[in-house]
Structures are given as structure tokens and as C-alpha cells.
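Sharing in case it's useful to others searching the archive later.

Someone asked me privately for the predicted structure of BolA family protein, so I'm posting the question and my answer publicly. Question first, with the sequence:
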Amino acid sequence: MTAADAEAAIEAGIEDCEATVTTPRAPDPDHEDAHFAAVVVSPAFEGKSLVQQHQLVYDAVGDAMTKEVHALEIKTYTPEEYAEHGE
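And my answer, the predicted C-alpha cells:
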């Protein structure tokens, strides 16, 4: 899975979502550990706890979380939160 694949999966799995996925560290050529960082903005996060928001992201990535993704750093925002505090 590439960062673009992860981004597409998140955007497809969460309503009105905009995701930016990066690789925060260089891949280790001796291991197949894929480390990703995702910033995800969606009104679907409104009224949900941080754990519930992150679960939506994990669900969107699906089976890749157990097969192709070693780690996923997640930052979630509603559109309003992102306008105030986003990166």
C-alpha cells in the first residue's frame, strides 16, 4: 500500500472526507513495514470521541491495517476544527 492508496481508501470510506497521507519516515528496505501519517478532515467526526474518529479511519483502511500497514499516525478534525487548529 502506498500513501496515495491509503489516502484514497480513507476518502472512499468516510463521508465528505479530505485526507492527506504521508510517509513520516523513510521505508526500511530490509522490512516491509509501512508507516503512514494521516490528517483527515470530515464532518462525519462531529460529536464523536477521538477514539470513534480514529476507528472510522481504521475501518476505512480496512484489512490493509493488518496486512500492509505497520503503523498509522492519525490526526482527525471536523472542518471547523481544521479551520481553527489545522496544520
